[in-house]
Amino acid sequence: MSEIKSVAVAGASGNVGPHVVKALADAQFQVTVLTRSKKPGAYDPSVKVIEVDYASVESLAAALQGIDALVSTVSGTATEGQTILIDAAIAAGVKRFIPSEYGNCTTNPKLEAFPVYSSMAKVRQYVQEKAEAGKITWTVLACGGFLDFLFAKPILFNFANHKVTLYDGGDNRMSSTSLPNVGKAIVGILKNSAATKNKIVRTSEIIVTQNKILRIAQGLRPDIKWEISTAQTSAILKEGLDGVSAGDFSMPTIMKIIVSTALAGDVYGCAYDETDNELLGIKELTEEDLKRLVAERLG
């Protein structure tokens, strides 16, 4: 039996947060959402909503009284500020902290000095230090790329216009998990709090490559002619890093760093050949499931 019963979620209005809140509520956890401002009807009636000042340890600690676990789903721009969440959690006696580090290669030491990843590394190192002192425990969830984004947004494929840019030839492998299953994986972590204590756990519904998806698309709809271009992740990464070095922190520049590392395959360990799916209760997709997802995007 898990010792975790009450869970607070920080950053619940972003891409990941709503799925985490729903999964926790469905699993009968006592859920509290921390928010800067309440929005009537934004959450299920069973979910408690508390207004907080994210810059104040005192405000957060007061809201976290009686909470067993704090799950952060804050956006990238607020990543480094999670140290305040950790301090507040410790002050309130929270047992477990899950940082907002949902991706495929965020824990790779090769990336710790890179923009975006450096903030995640600092937070991870901070909570690890606190855990070593016996003040709190932690779990990091590595979930691969969001399956929803891969098919709904023109990142790997532009299904609407039948265009694709093949990175490094298109055979780089990448783990991927849907947002609803990211939420379910969080539930799995908290239900198995002893087994996931102070660990990086990995979940992956499927390992994909661009060429694999393209072959499926061409097989399903041979009448569609795809416009195919190519690019090298190393060149795109250099563009992004050079841009940041020159003071350009715009989203297009940051996305070059994210995309070029996330799609670099085994260079940064983007595909998980070993996962914690069974422990977390995540079922892997079959080839037929993948074909169905592609077919839905083709229309």
TrEMBL record:
Coiled coil stretches, renumbered: none
* Sorted UniProt keywords: NADP, Oxidoreductase
The record's section on SUPFAM superfamilies has:
NAD(P)-binding Rossmann-fold domains
Q: Where is the signal peptide?
A: none
Cited Pfam families: NmrA (PF05368)
Q: Which domain of life is it from?
A: Eukaryota
* InterPro entries, per the entry: NAD(P)-bd_dom_sf, NmrA-like, NmrA/Isoflavone_reductase-like, PCBER-like
User: Which residues belong to any copy of the NmrA-like domain?
Assistant: 5-216
GO molecular function terms attached to this record: oxidoreductase activity
PANTHER family reported for this sequence? CIPA-LIKE, PUTATIVE (AFU_ORTHOLOGUE AFUA_1G12460)-RELATED, NMRA-LIKE FAMILY PROTEIN
What is this protein's record name? NmrA-like domain-containing protein
Q: Say which species the protein is native to.
A: Lachnellula cervina
